[in-house]
Amino acid sequence: MESGVSRWRQISETLIKEIERGVFEADRRLPNSNDLAARFGVNRHTVLRALAQLQTEGIVRMERGRGTYAVVNPLQMRLGPRRWFEQNLIHSNRVPTRKVLSVARLPAPEAAAEALDIAPGSETAFVVLRGEADGVPINIVSNYFPLERFPNIDDVFRAFGPEPTSQLSFGKIFRDYGVADFRRKALRIRSRPPRPEEARQLEIAPVDHVLETDVTLVDSSDTPLNYANTAYASSRVELVVDL
């Protein structure tokens, strides 16, 4: 390897070239850190630093307990007024599923109350979902539904059970409550490190980042229906805002 360049950077540059040449195809697992350390004649910590840098650059993703995978074409999630989770995945030839992680009744925190145009502390159904593409976790969504508008909607989500399902559709749930049409009204995006539970559920390393969105859904009369905070695994998706 070239002198004057740190060993971890040389390793990362070599792996980038191999991924670009197709030595490691999209979603193919790379050799483990011990094997890479032996290949490059360095210690394991040097390899892990190189892989962490590649993950920060979106070139690989590190999944806890599963290994490191090449990322060639991250999944595009288009966030238009009426572009939804299922449409994005089906368009990318992926199978969409959701898993209900938790359901509870909680007082609305300030941000949710403001978005839903209800008094702070009003009772809401708090529903946490994990979105998956071909069984791979891609996001964690924390939803707030005003119970005055959607009585017993928490029971609707509990009925899906704890296993991933392709049957969970916001469109169908809203229609059952008499909402024929809905859209995104507000969207905010930021990047941050994952919280410990998010890293566990998304099966990403703590050094990875998530893309966080705050979204408000409204009906055709502009009445708020849902406030959602979503954490996307940034090494698996790119967000495209359709205006």
Helix and strand arrangement:
Elements: H1 7-21, H2 33-40, H3 44-56, E1 60-63, E2 67-70, E3 75-78, H4 85-91, E4 96-107, H5 110-116, E5 123-133, E6 136-146, H6 153-158, H7 170-176, E7 182-192, H8 196-202, E8 210-219, E9 224-233, E10 237-240
Parallel strand pairs: 3-10
Antiparallel strand pairs: 1-2, 4-5, 5-6, 6-9, 7-8, 8-9
Helix pairs in contact: 1-3, 2-3
Outline of the structure:
This protein has helices at 7-21, 33-40, 44-56, 85-91, 110-116, 153-158, 170-176, 196-202, and strands at 60-63, 67-70, 75-78, 96-107, 123-133, 136-146, 182-192, 210-219, 224-233, 237-240. By secondary structure, the chain is an alpha+beta fold.
Distance between the termini: 47 Å
CATH superfamily of the largest domain: Chorismate lyase-like
Instruction: Please describe the biggest sheet, giving its number of strands, its sense, and whether it closes into a barrel.
Output: 6 strands, antiparallel
What is the number of independent domains? Answer: 2
Beta fraction = 25-35%
Residue-averaged pLDDT, rounded? 91
Query: What fold name goes in the CATH topology slot of the largest domain?
Result: Chorismate lyase
Structure write-up:
- This protein is an alpha+beta fold and about 240 residues long.
- Helix content is about 30%, strand content about 35%.
- It has a six-stranded antiparallel beta sheet. Strands 1-2 form a two-stranded antiparallel sheet.
- The model has no long low-confidence stretch (mean pLDDT about 90).
- Keywords: DNA-binding, Transcription, Transcription regulation.
